[in-house]
Amino acid sequence: SQELEQSPQSLIVQEGKNLTINCTSSKTLYGLYWYKQKYGEGLIFLMMLQKGGEEKSHEKITAKLDEKKQQSSLHITASQPSHAGIYLCGAAMDSNYQLIWGAGTKLIIKP
Amino acid sequence: NAGVTQTPKFQVLKTGQSMTLQCAQDMNHNSMYWYRQDPGMGLRLIYYSASEGTTDKGEVPNGYNVSRLNKREFSLRLESAAPSQTSVYFCASSSPIGRQAHQPQHFGDGTRLSIL
């Protein structure tokens, strides 16, 4: 959807390096979700952000939502081969149940 | 825990054929969703069911029908398949707490559908 821009489209990173994926909306978001998809599999939920300025971490992955609730970043520290896959952001634009999705970022980790 | 189960995992159809994609969840979720995923386009919502007994159109409903059979099951039907419906289809479920709260959606492993 053009309402939710995700960048970059793809990323090749040397193992051990840090990386950041961004998700940007022109509208204020009610909620922002990050998912990971391995090739040929379903989406695995990573984190949900709802408050402006919120930051959450799980192992080596940190997600942030800016104060205006229009941009989120996903940061991976010291990347590992297990981090490879497609990362998608999904956003609630209003109070109903529907989510709008970014096109995804394909992450490749070089050993 | 099975979570969200989709069948079949793969299917090849000829143009004009019909088929039903099945989805079941065992998490007692109220809401269920059907998405399609195409290269470079992310996920697009086809239909959703906010609760048992209700269904609503999403972003791309044309050419599809759905049935919320009970709280657990939500099926997607292609009445007359077209090559443009070649895609990966995902079913998801969630359980919103009140109309102002959002909860994560849980996804099945997908159905890879090719229409020749």
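The first strand of chain B starts at residue 4 and ends at 7.
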